[in-house]
Every structure is written in C-alpha cells, then in structure tokens.
Automatic annotation (TrEMBL):
Involved in cell wall formation. Catalyzes the final step in the synthesis of UDP-N-acetylmuramoyl-pentapeptide, the precursor of murein. It comes from the Bacteria. SUPFAM superfamilies: MurD-like peptide ligases, catalytic domain, MurD-like peptide ligases, peptide-binding domain, MurE/MurF N-terminal domain. The lineage of its organism: Bacteria, Pseudomonadati, Bacteroidota, Flavobacteriia, Flavobacteriales. It is an enzyme of class 6 (ligase). It catalyses: D-alanyl-D-alanine + UDP-N-acetyl-alpha-D-muramoyl-L-alanyl-gamma-D-glutamyl-meso-2,6-diaminopimelate + ATP = UDP-N-acetyl-alpha-D-muramoyl-L-alanyl-gamma-D-glutamyl-meso-2,6-diaminopimeloyl-D-alanyl-D-alanine + ADP + phosphate + H(+). It comes from Winogradskyella marincola. Belongs to the MurCDEF family. MurF subfamily. It holds the Pfam family Mur_ligase_C. This is UDP-N-acetylmuramoyl-tripeptide--D-alanyl-D-alanine ligase. PANTHER family: UDP-N-ACETYLMURAMOYL-TRIPEPTIDE--D-ALANYL-D-ALANINE LIGASE (PTHR43024). Keywords: ATP-binding, Cell cycle, Cell division, Cell shape, Cell wall biogenesis/degradation, Cytoplasm, Ligase, Nucleotide-binding, Peptidoglycan synthesis. Residues 15-68 form the Mur ligase N-terminal catalytic domain. Pathway: Cell wall biogenesis; peptidoglycan biosynthesis.
Length: 426
C-alpha cells in the first residue's frame, strides 16, 4: 500500500502506538521488531486492546482486513512521519549535541510557549524511532515543532534530518560522548555537524554559540547564522553573571535567575533566549519562562534534605559532562562534599583513559569522600582514601552508615548505572 493511502488511515486513527500494552481505542499499531521482540506476534492483542489498524511486515500476522502488510514496518513509520511533516508544513526547530539536548529543548519550548502554540519531543524520544513518533504527534495548528535528535554513529543525524526536514537548528556542544560509535572525538564533531550540513545545504537558519570555536569552525562560510553569546558582536547578547549554584544571567538589561545549576548550563539557557528574541518573544516572557523551568528526571536536580544538598545528575554521563559537573561542584560553597561517580558508557577503547582522567581530576580537587562505582572506575589507579566499588550492590552496605549532615553531594553516572538508587539508601 502506498504511503498516501496509509496516511489517510493514519488521519482517521486516534494516534500511533508501538506497544500493545499502551494502546488506546482507535490507535494505529506499528508492529516494530527488535533484537528480542517481534511486534507482528502481538497483532491479535493490539486489536483486542482497541487498535483500528495494524501495520505489519509478516504475512502470517495478517489476521483481518484492518492489517496493512508492508515490506518493512520501521521504514513505513519513518516514511509516514516525513509525509506528515510535509503535509502539516509547520516550522521545525531541531537540535542535537553531546550534552544538554533535553534541557535545551525544554527551555526553548518554555520560552516559545509564552507566545506561540508549541509541541516538542517527549522525554528523549530522539532516535530513528523516536523522531518519527514525535513528528507524527505534531498537528497542523502548531506554530512550532521542536525535534530533539540523538545519535551514536555517523550518518544518523543526516538520516533524521531527512525525515524531519528542519527549518532551524542548533548544536548544544561537541563533547566526548558515544566515542565508541563515532570513532573518537573528531568523529563526534563530524557526526553531530550533519545537522549543520543539512541546514546549510538547504539554506535554513542556524543558531550558534559564538563562544564555542569548535562550532564556528564547522559552520565556516555559511551566512544564514544567528549568533548568541556574551559579547556585543552577537545577534543576541546574553551575559553570564554567576552559577553558585544556580545560573544567573542578564539579557536586555534584565537579570534572569534560573533554577539550573552549573555554568555549563549557560549555553543551554542562552540559546533559548536567542530563539525567543529571534521570534520576537517579549523580554519579560523570556525571563518568566527561564525562571519557571525546573529540571527533573535526574537531570541536574537539586534536592534538599534537611542540611544536606544533593545534586542529582544521574540521567547520563560522558567525560565532558562529568568534568563539567566536577568543576561546578568544586566552586560551590559547602562544609563537606561527597562524590558518587558511576561508570561512563560507550567510550570503547578510550574507556580506560577517560575514567583514569576523571579519577585523577577528582583526587586533585577533592580531599576525601570520593566514591567511584562500576567496573571501569574500579580498574583505575587511585589513592587509598578513594573508595571504589565494582557495582552498585557493593556500594549499598556503606550508604546506610554515612553521615551527610551539612554537606553537598554529587551523584552522577551513565544511565545504565542508575545511581539515583542512592537516594533511597542515604
């Protein structure tokens, strides 16, 4: 069946679902396959749960006339998303980067939502499945759609751009993330810059942090740029004031007091301000949106428990974000500081070196109360005062006896480490 015909059935459906456990009445179910599952096997369950149509790529899954047999379910989902994007024809703002993507996306949404009707990627649905689902959730009455794009190998951002066809874009930063898949730090820069390449090739607009020479180098010779930064030469001037612990900045002679910690969040806030300015959002609305935004889902959250301040940043980690979090902790005022650091994943052959670098920095800048968790950190060479644990289970018995009164605690690690579990035991 042609995409145009499937699209008509999509328009008549309630929404899209890829999980039979979450189907609502009238949904269109896409029977996706993975390494350990085959959605074709759950078609009967999908109809019983209320699905109106099921998209399948196994002829044995066709159990009634409401099953649509295609060559490949995932490709059909992606093609349908692109067809929908063309049909609704709303401005799309896309962003990628090594760190801060989701926070930046939420900040941009908060700013624009003060003046426009806006929708954005839910959570971190930012891959080859998440981006199509995001696009298919957008409606033609929106003023803007914001699409977050994640990647862990070359050509992935290029592929996602082909689906989303963004009108505007930005890269939060280039960091040491997914080094294994990208083939090193230069590979990260090349891979993430595929967003710039698409925007440049299609004469679309780029928002760029002029304080980041790596980004300026990648977009060299392109004229359709809107810069933001700390100096008066920028299209949008956002002055950094302080970060102790929350980021404070100034825009249009008005101070903005965010609820985000760490100077590394300056760029994330500044681009949201720049996009707000570009689309003529009033300064007071920009200020209100930034100051009202609260981080959640284990991303740079500050949790106060009596006299203990906990910085929970356990959603993910890579060498760049880990170092930034440690530098931020170093400059904070606190009687005592505790560090719980978990392994950083997807570093490939660089894993040993990068974990040792973090361990060295930690010991050079903090005297005590250092706890390293995970197989990679366990292999590092450290002082006797640094406590290392192969797993979270090995760490657990120690947590119940710690006295954290009048202290600041940093919890950071990759998603697979799930270090937020520490909170239950402190």
């Amino acid at each position: 069946m042609e995409i145009a015909s499937i699209y008509k059935k999509f328009e008549a459906s309630a929404s899209i679902s890829t999980d039979t456990r979450k189907i609502s009445k009238g949904d269109m179910y896409f029977a996706l396959k993975g390494d350990n599952f085959d959605g074709n096997k759950f078609v009967k369950q999908a109809f019983e749960s209320g699905a109106k149509h099921c998209i399948v790529d196994d002829k044995n899954a066709v159990i009634n006339d409401n099953c649509i047999l295609v060559d490949d379910v995932l490709t059909t989902l992606q093609n349908l998303a692109n067809y929908h994007r063309k049909t609704i024809n709303i401005p799309i703002i896309s962003l990628t980067g090594s760190n801060g993507k989701t926070t930046t996306k939420e900040l941009i949404k908060a700013v624009l939502s003060t003046s426009y009707k806006v929708d954005a990627t839910k959570g971190n649905l930012n891959n080859h499945i998440g981006v199509p689902l995001t696009l298919l959730s957008f409606t033609k009455d929106l003023d803007f759609g914001i699409v977050e794009m994640g990647a862990n190998h070359q050509k992935e951002i290029e592929f996602l751009c082909g689906i989303a066809e963004p009108n505007f874009g930005l890269i939060t930063n280039f960091g040491k993330a997914h080094l294994e898949g990208f083939g090193g730090e230069e590979g990260v820069i090349k891979g993430k810059s595929e967003l710039y390449d698409y925007l440049k090739a299609n004469e679309k607009t780029v928002f760029i942090n002029s304080d980041d020479p790596k980004q300026l180098k990648q977009i060299n010779s392109y004229h359709n740029i809107k810069t933001f930064g700390k100096t008066k030469e920028n299209d949008c001037i956002v002055e950094f004031k302080s970060a102790n612990p929350y980021v404070n900045l100034s825009y249009n002679n008005i101070d903005i007091h965010s609820q985000l910690i760490g100077d590394y969040n300056y760029g994330n806030i500044a681009v949201a301000v720049a996009i707000g300015q570009y689309f003529e959002v009033k300064t007071e609305n920009i200020k209100k949106a930034i100051e009202s935004y609260q981080p959640n889902n284990n991303r740079s959250e500050i949790i106060n428990r009596h006299t203990t301040k906990i910085i929970l940043d356990a959603y993910n980690a890579n060498p760049t974000s880990m170092l930034a979090a440690l530098k931020n902790l170093k400059q904070l005022n606190a009687d005592r500081k505790y560090l719980f650091l978990g392994d950083m994943f997807e570093l490939g052959k660089e894993a040993e070196k990068e974990h040792q670098t973090i361990a060295n920095f930690t010991e050079d800048n903090f005297d005590e109360n250092i706890f390293l968790v995970g197989e990679n950190f366990y292999k590092t060479t450290t002082k006797s005062t640094t406590k290392k644990f192969k797993s979270f289970e090995d760490l657990k018995p120690l947590l119940k006896n710690l006295d954290l009164k009048n202290s600041t605690v940093l919890i950071k690690g990759s998603r697979g480490m799930a270090l937020e579990r520490i909170l239950e035991l402190l």
